[in-house]
Fold this sequence. Notes:
Elements lengths: L5 E6 L3 H12 L5 E4 L6 H6 L1 H11 L4 H7 L11 H25 L3 E3 L3 E5 L2 E4 L4 E9 L3 E3 L11 E2 H4 L8 E5 L3 H12 L3 E6 L10 H13 L3 E4 L3 E6 L2 H6 L28 E5 L4 E4 L1 E4 L3 E3 L32 E3 L10 H16 L13 E3 L5 E5 L2 H7 L2 E8 L2 H5 L6 E8 L5 E7 L3 H13 L4 H6 L19 E2 L1
Parallel strand pairs: 1-2, 1-6, 2-3, 6-17, 8-15, 9-10, 9-15, 10-11
Antiparallel strand pairs: 4-5, 5-6, 7-16, 12-13, 13-14, 18-19, 19-22, 20-21, 20-23, 21-22
Amino acid sequence: MSDFDYDLFVIGGGSGGVRAARVAAGEAGAKVALAEEDRYGGTCVIRGCVPKKLMVFASEYAHVAEDARGYGWEMSEGSFDWPRFRERLTSELDRLEGIYRKLLASAGVTTYDARARLVDAHTVALSTGETVRAKHILVATGGRPLRPEIANAELGLVSDDIFHLENLPKSILIVGGGYIACEFACILNGLGVEVTQYYRGAQILRGFDEEARGLIAESMVDQGIHLHCGTDIVEMRRATAQDHDGAQDGDIPMGAALQDMTADHSGGRPGDGPVWVKATNGNTHVFDQVLFATGRVPNTAEMGLTEAGVTLGRRGQIEVDKFSQTSVPSVYAIGDVTDRVNLTPVAIREGMAFVETVFRGNPTPVDHDLIPSAVFTQPEFGTVGLSEEQAAEQEPIEVYVTSFRPMQTAFAGRPDRVMMKLVVAQDSRRVLGCHIVAPNAGEMIQLAGIAVKMGATKEDFDRTVAVHPTMAEEIVTLRKPVRTA
């Protein structure tokens, strides 16, 4: 008789944990259980990628009537109905969560709707009071949004909160310059919200290709987003009626809710009322909402990890080797909780590699090299490989790039610009990086990523016949480098 209740116990019901659990049970024949304290599907399905992308789609309809008139259609402007959209969104997320639960059940996975914490290398305690033992434990608890350490930061929203707003604010301050901040700035602007964005750095989207960052920033400003780099919050509190007269607004909206305020509302929760903000430049403003998109941290708090001997890193991430194994041999970890490459498809790949390693006897490290990704700003940004700056530090390079107005929006009279860029090694001629700023760049970079991953050279791209007329044809018609480094 085995000393274990399960061959595998998974903590976390997000995309990575669910994939590992159902493949281990359904295909590898393991006896598996999974615990999730919140909703199945995790960040991506419930409060991240999926609802965000649906909001991106919704926000892109803002220009439909205007563009249609440019093509000869008679079409009037409409208005966005947030409660109606949110109801549809909630129903869709419920449907997807149901699919995740069915997938686990059909694979024979036992599920616990409970919080789990490690007791020791093989024991898990559940918030229901139960204790179970497993030969292997997989931690896949993901990450959570981080609020800055300033007074009254609790008055601001984080990304998880956006999907639950009763009504859209008339004005919002978004603090941060990463992909989450920039995506929500574009989304909310497209839905009719007056958007201001503060970022303490010199340019948004730090770590990405600088030329692409610049074009996206210009496009955001052209669309009416009040983008302020080199700026941060130093103070914030619940606004009072008197703050409206004293605020130094410049080109930034003051928060329509103030017109109905007659008393001081201190304290409160996110969304309870407008927020007064003082910036690093000394200016003060009032916004209906403040959204902090200032980073995420691994979800490892109060899980008994260090007590069980699992080593954590400086940011609280679980330290793992190339096989996702922790310092405790029976405990593994995948996904954002390890803070390696924080993308849903990566977590899924890590989950599959874990099953290969542990249950199929085929040690499989995860390949984290040349992962394509997309930032769903407007326009989108698709990228794979090295930025121009990263590549230039590594070896001599050639840069092929073009920027132009795409046919569809140019004909409609919009000033939008797109960019196609290849970073090429001078010696090997390999394409080290591909960067696309354009509508549907995420779709394009998925396919370009295959070529870059395979080690395609610039001449391989050149030998590929263009599909005309498309934006993407420019990626195979770039004949001369615009610069070398």
